[in-house]
Amino acid sequence: MATLKDIATEAGVSLATVSRVLNDDPTLSVKEETKRRIFEIAEKLEYKTTSSRRNVPNKKQKHHFLALYNYKQEAEVNDPYYLSIRHGIETQCDKLGVELTSCYESKIQLEKNHINGILLVGRTSPEVLAQAKKYTDNICYVDFTEHNQPYDSVDIDLTRISKEITDFFVDQGYQRIGFIGGQDDINTPDIREVAFAEYGKLKQVVSESDIYRGDFSSSSGYKLAKEMLSKGNHPNALFIASDSIAIGVLRAIHEHGLSIPQDISLISVNDIPTAKFTFPSLSTVRIHSEMMGIQGVNLLIEKSRDGRTIPLRTYVPSKLKLRDTTK
Asked: What's the rounded mean pLDDT across residues 254-266?
């Protein structure tokens, strides 16, 4: 009787690769030619899966996932970051043949559709989580992590990013750094702001009077920057919570007659497609937001397939992209 090792030897790949290919692992990245060769060898050697040996039909499980976006759909217009997450979710579901239902503003609008996986995108309240759990316990947070809950999450390390930007400005010799940001929930401060304020005060470069918050739109960034500049005595370095906010900040600075980065340097977050085409081009932190959506889908499938009970916390990488808004 043929074994996985026999197939791996003839195909010239690892035993793990053969196992993952034959088990249709969605997280595996391997050439289609390699997959085809493995299946052909398995068929030639008359390899039988464990389920086949027990005369159990090896049917591919059908998935129906719910993507619950905990913000208004208009947020995708104001900030492409959110649109990118949705694109990742939809692209991966389409690739893997997963039926997908999407709802916004934490409102689950389903009748009797069978749901075997839920993606909670953005900060989620206990009430929304309780509602989601009525459908399934296969739940994954995206762009948010709740450490007290036994569910998977795919997130970005905003605390590390905030410290990285602060350290960059400190190394450049700036002794006063301001912050212009937003809030998804009026009652909950943004992680970037909290981390920046705590770390910046520790470094003695941040004061509460230099922190401004609105929403994550360009118009909010413009308004807050105008407010800051009208005071006259403003910080010469700014940490901006998102590129969309930064676009409004840039306009306000230009209208005030100041030069960037000579008079004010700034770094934002996300690296949206237009960031390199602003004037000056934005220094920003590149976040692979689409990958968060993709990996959220993969985790739901993997947990459903394997029956895993231990929650996984996944952080997608980020990288500081220095352009013309910094010296």
From this structure: 97
